[in-house]
Amino acid sequence: MRNVEISSEIDEPPDSLPVVPSIVEFVAASLRVDEWDLSFLLCSDARISELNEEFRGVRGPTDVLSFASEEIPDNRIEGDVAISLESVSQNALENGVDLREEFVRVVVHALLHLTGMEHEGVTLDSPEASKHPMIGLQEKIVREVNELAGERSVE
Fold first, then answer.
1. For residue 36, how far is the Cα from the chain centroid?
2. N or C: more exposed end of the chain, with fewer CB within 10 A?
């Protein structure tokens, strides 16, 4: 099964956002994953704050949350992802990248979590980020997606 469902609580998501199924397909190929069953919710900081507190006990917004299935099946990515477009936009500004690149980054980040990878508090800003297995792989995939988008649209 190769299923990606997307819902949006945002009235008009920016046209510049890449198409999520294309990113999923690229990441799956990079990870040698054959099947996926995913749902994505594009939402506001207010909504992701509610989810963050309800499911993680953490107050306030975050850019992305991922919720894996009960068991992470081999050779399959399965779960739900919530993305706050407000936080992604803010991250893009703070990191000096465009919204498209930051959106790709959070989708990749969520997919890596759904495969069982963790980053134990290491963030992109951490000195050890480039050597961390998950963050290093995330940035490699983001670069590859951006290179591909330069050659032809990932959308």
1. 14
2. N
Give residue limits of the domains in the chain: 2-151
Beta bridge partners of 41: 7, 82
116: left (phi over 0), alpha (psi -120 to 50) or beta: left
Element (H, E) at 6: strand 2-8
Q: What architecture is the 2-151 domain classified under in CATH?
A: 3-Layer(aba) Sandwich (3.40)
CB neighbours of 2 closer than 8 A, spacing ≥ 6? 25, 35, 36
pLDDT digits (tens, 9 = 90+) for 50-102: 999 999 999 999 999 999 987 776 788 999 999 999 999 999 999 999 999 99
